Amino acid sequence: MTYTLDDLCRLVDHTNLKADASAQDMQKLCDEARQYHFKMVAINSVQSQLCAHLLAGTDIDTGAAISFPLGQTSIATKVFEAQDAMANGANEIDYVINITELKNGNLAYMKSEMTQMVAACHANHVPCKVIFENCYLSPAEIKTMATIAKEVRPDFIKTATGFGTSGATVADVRLMKSVVGDTVKVKAAGGIRDADTFLAMVAAGADRIGCSAGIKIIEVLKQRLQTDQVDTVAIDRPYAKVVQ
Fold it and tell me: Which residues share a beta bridge with 94?
Protein backbone atom coordinates (compact mmCIF):
# COMPACT_ATOMS: atom_id res chain seq x y z
CA MET A 1 0.00 0.00 0.00
CA THR A 2 1.09 3.58 -0.58
CA TYR A 3 0.63 6.37 1.95
CA THR A 4 0.88 10.12 1.57
CA LEU A 5 2.22 12.10 4.50
CA ASP A 6 -1.36 13.00 5.43
CA ASP A 7 -2.35 9.31 5.26
CA LEU A 8 0.41 8.57 7.76
CA CYS A 9 -0.76 11.40 10.02
CA ARG A 10 -4.26 9.96 9.95
CA LEU A 11 -2.95 6.74 11.47
CA VAL A 12 -1.90 8.57 14.62
CA ASP A 13 -3.81 8.78 17.89
CA HIS A 14 -1.96 11.71 19.47
CA THR A 15 -1.66 10.84 23.14
CA ASN A 16 -1.45 12.52 26.52
CA LEU A 17 -2.69 10.25 29.30
CA LYS A 18 -0.54 11.68 32.08
CA ALA A 19 -2.14 11.94 35.50
CA ASP A 20 -1.02 15.56 35.85
CA ALA A 21 -2.03 16.76 32.37
CA SER A 22 -3.37 20.30 32.68
CA ALA A 23 -5.87 22.27 30.62
CA GLN A 24 -2.88 23.94 28.96
CA ASP A 25 -1.49 20.50 28.09
CA MET A 26 -4.82 19.59 26.49
CA GLN A 27 -4.79 22.83 24.50
CA LYS A 28 -1.30 22.00 23.26
CA LEU A 29 -2.29 18.43 22.40
CA CYS A 30 -5.32 19.57 20.40
CA ASP A 31 -3.41 22.35 18.66
CA GLU A 32 -0.77 19.84 17.59
CA ALA A 33 -3.46 17.42 16.38
CA ARG A 34 -4.94 20.21 14.27
CA GLN A 35 -1.55 21.19 12.85
CA TYR A 36 -0.61 17.65 11.84
CA HIS A 37 -4.13 16.43 11.03
CA PHE A 38 -3.86 13.45 13.35
CA LYS A 39 -6.84 11.11 13.56
CA MET A 40 -7.54 11.45 17.27
CA VAL A 41 -6.37 12.78 20.60
CA ALA A 42 -6.15 10.04 23.22
CA ILE A 43 -6.93 11.39 26.67
CA ASN A 44 -8.30 10.36 30.05
CA SER A 45 -12.08 10.41 30.02
CA VAL A 46 -12.32 13.39 32.38
CA GLN A 47 -10.76 15.52 29.61
CA SER A 48 -13.47 14.61 27.06
CA GLN A 49 -15.54 17.78 27.30
CA LEU A 50 -12.54 20.09 27.07
CA CYS A 51 -10.94 18.32 24.12
CA ALA A 52 -14.23 17.97 22.25
CA HIS A 53 -14.68 21.72 22.64
CA LEU A 54 -11.13 22.45 21.48
CA LEU A 55 -11.56 20.22 18.43
CA ALA A 56 -15.05 21.37 17.48
CA GLY A 57 -15.43 21.91 13.75
CA THR A 58 -12.55 19.57 12.85
CA ASP A 59 -12.44 15.95 11.73
CA ILE A 60 -10.15 15.03 14.64
CA ASP A 61 -11.75 12.70 17.16
CA THR A 62 -11.73 12.88 20.94
CA GLY A 63 -10.77 9.47 22.26
CA ALA A 64 -11.53 8.66 25.89
CA ALA A 65 -9.62 5.96 27.75
CA ILE A 66 -11.96 3.90 29.93
CA SER A 67 -11.05 1.96 33.09
CA PHE A 68 -7.53 3.14 32.39
CA PRO A 69 -4.90 1.84 32.82
CA LEU A 70 -5.70 -1.28 34.88
CA GLY A 71 -9.12 -2.36 33.62
CA GLN A 72 -10.04 -3.42 37.15
CA THR A 73 -13.58 -2.11 37.31
CA SER A 74 -16.92 -3.80 36.78
CA ILE A 75 -18.63 -3.99 33.42
CA ALA A 76 -21.35 -1.63 34.63
CA THR A 77 -18.71 0.89 35.72
CA LYS A 78 -16.96 0.71 32.35
CA VAL A 79 -20.22 1.15 30.46
CA PHE A 80 -21.17 4.13 32.64
CA GLU A 81 -17.77 5.77 32.20
CA ALA A 82 -17.96 5.29 28.43
CA GLN A 83 -21.48 6.71 28.29
CA ASP A 84 -20.42 9.67 30.43
CA ALA A 85 -17.43 10.34 28.19
CA MET A 86 -19.59 10.17 25.08
CA ALA A 87 -22.17 12.49 26.65
CA ASN A 88 -19.31 14.93 27.16
CA GLY A 89 -18.16 14.77 23.56
CA ALA A 90 -15.90 11.73 23.22
CA ASN A 91 -16.40 10.12 19.83
CA GLU A 92 -13.98 7.23 20.20
CA ILE A 93 -13.60 4.88 23.16
CA ASP A 94 -10.58 2.78 24.19
CA TYR A 95 -11.29 0.49 27.18
CA VAL A 96 -9.03 -1.87 29.12
CA ILE A 97 -10.17 -5.46 29.54
CA ASN A 98 -10.52 -7.16 32.92
CA ILE A 99 -7.25 -9.10 32.83
CA THR A 100 -8.04 -10.85 36.13
CA GLU A 101 -11.15 -12.50 34.68
CA LEU A 102 -9.21 -13.55 31.60
CA LYS A 103 -6.54 -15.12 33.83
CA ASN A 104 -9.35 -16.85 35.73
CA GLY A 105 -10.45 -18.43 32.45
CA ASN A 106 -13.81 -16.68 32.65
CA LEU A 107 -14.31 -16.30 28.92
CA ALA A 108 -18.07 -15.76 29.27
CA TYR A 109 -17.28 -12.65 31.33
CA MET A 110 -14.76 -11.42 28.76
CA LYS A 111 -17.27 -11.84 25.96
CA SER A 112 -20.02 -10.14 27.97
CA GLU A 113 -17.75 -7.21 28.84
CA MET A 114 -16.77 -6.71 25.22
CA THR A 115 -20.32 -7.14 23.98
CA GLN A 116 -21.71 -4.57 26.40
CA MET A 117 -18.97 -2.05 25.72
CA VAL A 118 -19.29 -2.39 21.95
CA ALA A 119 -23.08 -2.08 22.19
CA ALA A 120 -22.82 1.08 24.30
CA CYS A 121 -20.42 2.66 21.84
CA HIS A 122 -22.19 1.60 18.67
CA ALA A 123 -25.52 2.83 20.03
CA ASN A 124 -23.89 6.27 19.84
CA HIS A 125 -22.14 5.55 16.51
CA VAL A 126 -18.79 5.69 18.30
CA PRO A 127 -15.89 3.33 17.51
CA CYS A 128 -14.83 0.98 20.29
CA LYS A 129 -11.24 -0.17 20.82
CA VAL A 130 -10.41 -3.03 23.18
CA ILE A 131 -7.07 -2.79 24.99
CA PHE A 132 -5.61 -6.23 25.74
CA GLU A 133 -2.45 -5.11 27.62
CA ASN A 134 -0.43 -7.88 25.99
CA CYS A 135 2.55 -7.62 28.34
CA TYR A 136 0.50 -9.54 30.90
CA LEU A 137 -0.90 -12.10 28.45
CA SER A 138 0.44 -15.29 26.90
CA PRO A 139 0.22 -15.73 23.11
CA ALA A 140 -2.64 -18.16 23.73
CA GLU A 141 -4.52 -15.55 25.78
CA ILE A 142 -3.96 -12.91 23.10
CA LYS A 143 -5.31 -15.30 20.51
CA THR A 144 -8.31 -16.11 22.74
CA MET A 145 -9.19 -12.42 23.13
CA ALA A 146 -8.76 -11.83 19.42
CA THR A 147 -11.06 -14.77 18.68
CA ILE A 148 -13.73 -13.27 20.96
CA ALA A 149 -13.27 -9.93 19.21
CA LYS A 150 -13.69 -11.55 15.81
CA GLU A 151 -17.14 -12.68 16.98
CA VAL A 152 -18.19 -9.55 18.90
CA ARG A 153 -16.69 -7.11 16.38
CA PRO A 154 -15.34 -4.06 18.15
CA ASP A 155 -13.75 -1.64 15.72
CA PHE A 156 -10.21 -2.24 16.96
CA ILE A 157 -8.25 -4.50 19.24
CA LYS A 158 -5.27 -2.75 20.80
CA THR A 159 -1.92 -3.96 22.08
CA ALA A 160 -1.30 -1.94 25.22
CA THR A 161 -2.00 1.06 27.44
CA GLY A 162 1.60 2.24 27.50
CA PHE A 163 1.48 1.95 31.30
CA GLY A 164 2.27 -1.77 31.55
CA THR A 165 5.63 -3.52 31.70
CA SER A 166 6.05 -3.27 27.93
CA GLY A 167 4.21 -1.93 24.91
CA ALA A 168 3.48 -2.95 21.35
CA THR A 169 5.55 -5.56 19.56
CA VAL A 170 5.50 -6.48 15.90
CA ALA A 171 4.95 -10.12 16.85
CA ASP A 172 1.83 -9.26 18.87
CA VAL A 173 0.39 -7.12 16.09
CA ARG A 174 0.97 -9.95 13.61
CA LEU A 175 -0.68 -12.47 15.93
CA MET A 176 -3.70 -10.26 16.59
CA LYS A 177 -4.16 -9.49 12.91
CA SER A 178 -3.75 -13.12 11.91
CA VAL A 179 -6.78 -13.99 14.03
CA VAL A 180 -9.17 -11.14 13.23
CA GLY A 181 -8.17 -10.58 9.59
CA ASP A 182 -10.30 -7.89 7.99
CA THR A 183 -13.10 -8.30 10.54
CA VAL A 184 -11.49 -6.06 13.18
CA LYS A 185 -8.67 -3.54 12.90
CA VAL A 186 -5.59 -3.50 15.11
CA LYS A 187 -4.19 -0.53 17.01
CA ALA A 188 -0.57 -0.64 18.10
CA ALA A 189 0.25 1.44 21.17
CA GLY A 190 2.91 1.59 23.83
CA GLY A 191 6.58 2.41 23.29
CA ILE A 192 6.32 3.51 19.65
CA ARG A 193 8.83 6.34 19.56
CA ASP A 194 10.55 6.31 16.16
CA ALA A 195 9.67 6.20 12.47
CA ASP A 196 11.05 2.73 11.78
CA THR A 197 9.00 1.19 14.60
CA PHE A 198 5.94 3.09 13.38
CA LEU A 199 6.36 1.70 9.86
CA ALA A 200 7.01 -1.81 11.18
CA MET A 201 3.74 -1.74 13.10
CA VAL A 202 1.83 -0.66 9.99
CA ALA A 203 3.52 -3.39 7.95
CA ALA A 204 2.55 -5.93 10.61
CA GLY A 205 -1.13 -5.01 10.19
CA ALA A 206 -1.82 -2.01 12.43
CA ASP A 207 -4.32 0.54 11.10
CA ARG A 208 -3.90 2.94 14.00
CA ILE A 209 -0.86 3.92 16.05
CA GLY A 210 -1.22 5.34 19.55
CA CYS A 211 1.79 7.35 20.64
CA SER A 212 2.99 10.57 22.21
CA ALA A 213 5.90 10.80 19.73
CA GLY A 214 3.71 11.35 16.68
CA ILE A 215 5.17 14.74 15.80
CA LYS A 216 8.75 13.46 15.94
CA ILE A 217 7.81 10.44 13.84
CA ILE A 218 5.94 12.41 11.20
CA GLU A 219 8.74 14.97 10.91
CA VAL A 220 11.24 12.18 10.23
CA LEU A 221 8.94 10.64 7.62
CA LYS A 222 8.39 14.04 6.04
CA GLN A 223 12.14 14.54 5.75
CA ARG A 224 12.56 11.11 4.14
CA LEU A 225 9.93 11.91 1.53
CA GLN A 226 11.59 15.23 0.77
CA THR A 227 15.03 13.64 0.54
CA ASP A 228 13.75 10.95 -1.81
CA GLN A 229 11.73 13.56 -3.73
CA VAL A 230 8.56 11.46 -3.58
CA ASP A 231 5.02 12.10 -2.40
CA THR A 232 4.21 8.67 -1.02
CA VAL A 233 5.78 5.86 0.96
CA ALA A 234 5.08 2.23 0.08
CA ILE A 235 4.48 -0.14 2.98
CA ASP A 236 4.25 -3.85 2.28
CA ARG A 237 1.62 -5.33 4.61
CA PRO A 238 2.02 -9.13 4.29
CA TYR A 239 0.85 -9.66 7.86
CA ALA A 240 -2.35 -7.67 7.32
CA LYS A 241 -3.75 -10.72 5.58
CA VAL A 242 -5.52 -13.54 7.37
CA VAL A 243 -3.25 -16.43 8.30
CA GLN A 244 -5.13 -19.72 8.30
Answer: 65, 129
